[in-house]
Amino acid sequence: MKHVTIKDIARHLSISASTVSRALVNDKNVRKETKEKVLNAARELNYKPNPVATNLKYGHSNTVGVIVPEMVTPFASTVVSGIQSVLYAHGIKVIVADSRENPDMERENLRLMEQFMVDGIIVSLCSYRKNREDYLRLQKAGMPMVFYDRIPYGLDVPQVLVDDYRKSFFLVEKLILGGREKIVHIQGPEDIYNSKERLKGYMDAMAKYKIPVNESTMVIRTGMTFDDGAEAAERLVGSGMDFDAIFAFTDTLAIGVMNRLRELGKRIPDEVAIASFSGTELSTIVYPKLTTVEPPLFQMGEKAAELILEKIKNPACPNRKETVNAEIRMRESSGIRD
User: Fold this and answer.
1) Contact 165, 198 (CB under 8 A)
2) Which of 86, 121, 100 is nearest to 306 (CA)?
3) DSSP strand pairing (63-68 vs 120-123)
């Protein structure tokens, strides 16, 4: 559908585009009769003003870009809802781009946000190692940026996160105190810094209770999908290794593992306890319900929005780090209840 522009109205009335533009904003220097003709023509031609173009004239777009690593689970959508609840109240619209766990697409999304001339960018990374030069370039250029959940470790930037290490430690400790000792960790990609922190929490909890960990067999490194979780379960069962619990990097991996283990005849949680990290709605709609670390996702979005508003208002303000409290939810999949 062709959008009617100021130039279309000008051609229709055989007057200049600048006169139309001034008439539409009720410029006192435009004659009353001309204003009426312009307004009537605008209604007749179904003209809709372009707020982005108007705002760019004054050096801002009243938009913030949000780049998420995936939209398969409810994680990103819940965070985005929190972001919108704050920004919409300030008259700022949100543009969302999905990187599909691909750093190359993340880079394209960054450039897309630049082309849209957004006032700021909120990001959850695919990889803390890649695209660092792009983020440094944008930071140097004065682009307000905030990172949530998956952060660019080592960069001085505003960020909103949970304590991945401590929450993973305490969750694994609960499994141990519940009688599980042969605990396997399904680790996410090493390019995601959360993955390293959750692995460290697992390792230190096992060490505290003097449970030996053979990383080559008890830590399975994989991707991020349900299928990756199912494939990890097959590898575990196929190896013949004795295990009585699994701590997975995310709910997605845990559900993939749990479903495949059940298909292979394992009883959950009698034979194998399952626990994970993410705390989306997925954890409560599977059977058995999933024990997980549950971050306050909506609040995480609100905090990210508040930080980006700070940076837009004053780019020189300190880069604050906000840590939100995640809750450990013990459910049927672990055989342990709070």
Assistant:
1) yes
2) 86
3) parallel
Percent over 90 (pLDDT), the chain? 84
CB–CB of 187/199 below 8 Å?
A: yes
| Cβ atoms of 99 and 67 closer than 8 Å | yes
Could you give the strand order of the β-sheet that contains 183-187, starting from the edge strand earlier in sequence?
A: 219-221, 183-187, 245-248, 273-277, 291-294, 327-329
pLDDT at 314 over 80: yes
Query: What is the per-residue DSSP string for 229-261?
Result: HHHHHHHHHHHT---SEEEESSHHHHHHHHHHH
User: Are 66 and 97 a contacting pair, CB within 8 Å?
Assistant: yes
* Strand pairing class (245-248; 183-187): parallel
Higher pLDDT, 49 or 316: 316
CB 10 within 8 A of CB 20: yes
Q: Which helix or strand (DSSP H or E) is residue 75 part of? A: helix 74-87
- Other residues' Cβ atoms within 10 Å of the Cβ of residue 79: 28
Q: What is the mean pLDDT of residues 198-215?
A: 98
Beta strands, E only, the chain = 63-68, 93-98, 120-123, 145-148, 159-161, 183-187, 219-221, 245-248, 273-277, 291-294, 321-323, 327-329
Q: Give the type of residue at 211.
A: I
If one compares 60 and 201, the residue with the highest pLDDT of the two is 201
HEC letters along 87-152: HHHHCCEEEEEECCCCHHHHHHHHHHHHHCCCCEEEECCCCCCCCHHHHHHHHHCCCCEEEECCCC
Half-sphere exposure of 75 (CA within 13 A, CB side): 22
| Neighbouring C-beta atoms of residue 153, cutoff 10 Å | 16
Question: For 55-111, how does the pLDDT look when each residue is reduced to its tens digit (9 = 90+)?
Answer: 666 667 899 999 999 999 999 999 999 999 999 999 999 999 999 999 999 999 999
Do strands 183-187 and 145-148 pair parallel, antiparallel, or not at all (unpaired)? unpaired
Return the SS3 of 188. Answer: coil
pLDDT tens, 30-45? 899 999 998 999 899 8
